[in-house]
Amino acid sequence: MKEHKQIKDWGLGLTGPTIIAGPCSAESPEQIEQICIEMKENNVIPSMFRAGIWKPRTRPGSFEGIGEEGLKWMEIVRHHLNIPITVEVGNAAHAEIALRNNVDVVWVGARTTVNPFAVQEIADALKGTDIPVMVKNPMNPDLDLWIGALERFHAVGLTKLAAIHRGFSDAYDKRYRNKPNWSMPMHLKRVWTGMEVINDPSHIVGKRDGILEISQKAMNFGLDGLMIETHHDPDNAWSDAKQQVTPARLKEILDAIDFKKPLESEQPSERLNDLRRAVDHMDDQLLDILQERFAVIDQIGAHKREHHLPVFQSDRWKDVMESRTQKGVAKNLSEKFMKELLYCIHEESVKRQEKQLREADSVKK
Ligand code: PEP
Ligand code: MN
């Protein structure tokens, strides 16, 4: 897989879970200063300070960001907190302005990740520098678009990369502002080894309540940090007022989270090794059973071929699905898991048998 530098190697002195906090939007020098002061007072100094300078609003007419002027106010953050600054860039011009103003880290927003032209334009504008880039997941749950955006930065020589998981828009599920779809960040971590994913509970939940719960879930799943929108006066924020928390609340949230230690940093204990050996053994047994099951499936396939029966028989399928799901649920396996597992096994069975029919046909011809 493509080599990239992890956050600890970005040269910014960052260690442990990466906590990014700051307002949705930079509004005024006074606002930035007040947030910094309250962070200090509450003894909650994040790893990086975030502020939206250009705001990608879904519909025109609301506050679209203060623009370059806001970047000058980041000096206030350096003065009070002395931490790296990160802002969102949505096009090449933003990227150039961010570079000119010594922004430490840039991020690409969800509405930009969906657009390969815009991502490429930003990558080209940043080429030749070694600025770290964080890529938010696209609005829609398309893992390739997310990976593709990271690859575009990698391809121009930017290797300090990380991803941000901010959830996915969903027309039907209104429990969240953006549905977390936890399998997506996990899958990104599987296919791009070592890629760190920072969770953004603020844009997932869309309101203050629930940020702690999502943050804890992210840590339980093994994600690598949090981006939490923080404002000294959330109710009067110029954007995303409902979801921002005060520095005092940020402190409470961070104190309440049970942060997990990265496994690699620990010698796995004997107990963990034993349990893993047990799982390895059971996986071997599962594979043996599957092998036997498919051998029988092949015999059924031969029978269907002989008797000119189609491979897919909906009554049988319905019965298998219902009875196995019920049995699985009784064994404390979720219905969703049972259905996915059975679809997967059945799909493979049908494909094998159809292949047998085709091979038999070609022998006849
Ligand atoms: C933001 O971080 O304020 C933002 C606009 O996020 P997203 O791109 O996730 O919508
Ligand atoms: Mn926001």
From TrEMBL:
Superkingdom of origin: Bacteria
Limits of the Chorismate mutase domain: 266-357
Gene3D superfamilies, sorted: Aldolase class I, Chorismate mutase
Keyword list, A-Z: Transferase
EC number: 5.4.99.5
GO biological process: chorismate metabolic process
GO molecular function per UniProt: chorismate mutase activity; transferase activity
Entry annotated with the keyword ATP-binding: no
Protein name in UniProt: chorismate mutase
InterPro entries, alphabetized: Aldolase_TIM, Chorismate_II_sf, Class-I_DAHP_synthase, CM_dom_sf, CM_II_prokaryot, DAHP1/KDSA
Enzyme class (EC, first level): isomerase
